[in-house]
Design brief:
Number of strands: 16
Radius of gyration: 18 Å
Number of helices: 5
Strand content: 35-45%
Helix content: 10-25%
Structural class: alpha+beta
Shape: globular
Distance between the termini: 17 Å
Largest sheet: 8 strands, mixed
Length: 267
């Protein structure tokens, strides 16, 4: 079963305002959904984010201590691109959680909270620029980091769904193989992820971001839902055909830490 983490959906209070922010910062290719309340943004081939209007303000807006337990990452080639992305985000109303700086063991990063509440980590693998920054900076990869109770146990859950481990540093950090055009999934303890993001570890349970696993056929969707149930998660919606901009067979589940997921196959 070949699964890919294609999309992460963000619940936002105002889709148009969130679209303006993300367009000004990441310059993605985007299109508005037929219902008018969703916006699909392609992160230059490094996965997609969907903005889904829910009609209420997200409780993780700047100035509040809440942490939903997840961080989105955006990896670029060099430090100057981190700095230009951060400057664009601040101009668009983002709150800086950690300023751009060199890492102790290498790399260069910054952390921000977007106006609608999502925490983003911008990073480059090197401390020095090697040439002019891209305009706009194009990511080498993007991803979703989850703060879980036990990364090793969560690794077992996600491998049971069909994901393949890439790097495994025990309870410090685990991630999964990156599919072409998809997002990377990473696991850390909630406390470690909150510290890395510059926020407190307290707050409500997860719920404002929903990653989507892409399957190749409906039977794989059903298999993932059954594996999630068997692995200690919960099935919140059985697979069914949904009609939107793309007709899909979609099911929904939660992992053992309560993070919501979708799994879908085009039909």
């Amino acid at each position: 079963m070949a699964l890919s983490l294609d999309t992460v959906t963000l619940a936002v209070g105002r889709a148009r305002e969130a679209e303006e922010f993300y367009t000004s910062v990441f310059s993605p290719a985007g299109r508005r959904g037929g219902d008018g309340d969703t916006v699909l943004l392609d992160l230059h081939g490094a996965g997609r984010i969907t903005l889904r209007e829910v009609g209420t303000e997200d409780p993780t807006a700047p100035g509040t201590p809440e942490f939903r337990g997840h961080v989105l990452s955006y990896i670029v080639a060099q430090p100057g691109e981190v700095e230009s992305l951060l400057a664009a985000a601040v101009a668009g109303g983002a709150h800086v959680l950690k300023p751009a700086r060199k890492g102790v063991f290498g790399g260069f990063s910054a952390v921000l909270r977007a106006p609608e509440g999502t925490v983003w980590k911008l990073a480059a693998p090197t401390k020095k620029n090697t040439g002019p920054s891209g305009e706009p900076p194009v990511p080498t990869e993007a991803g979703v980091l989850l703060g879980v109770a036990d990364p090793t146990a969560s690794k077992a859950f996600y491998t049971s769904l069909g994901l393949e481990v890439d790097r495994d540093y025990g309870d410090k950090y685990i991630d999964f193989a990156l599919a072409p055009g998809g997002l990377r999934l990473g696991l850390m303890t909630r406390r470690a992820l909150a510290k890395d993001a510059g926020v407190g570890a307290g707050g409500p349970g997860p719920g404002s971001a929903v990653p989507t696993l892409g399957a190749s056929k409906p039977e794989e969707v059903d298999a993932v839902l059954e594996a999630a149930r068997a692995g200690g998660g919960g099935v919140t919606a059985a697979g069914e055909v949904e009609r939107g901009d793309v007709r899909s067979y979609t099911g929904r589940f939660t992992d053992p830490d309560g993070f919501p997921w979708e799994v879908a196959a085009a039909v």
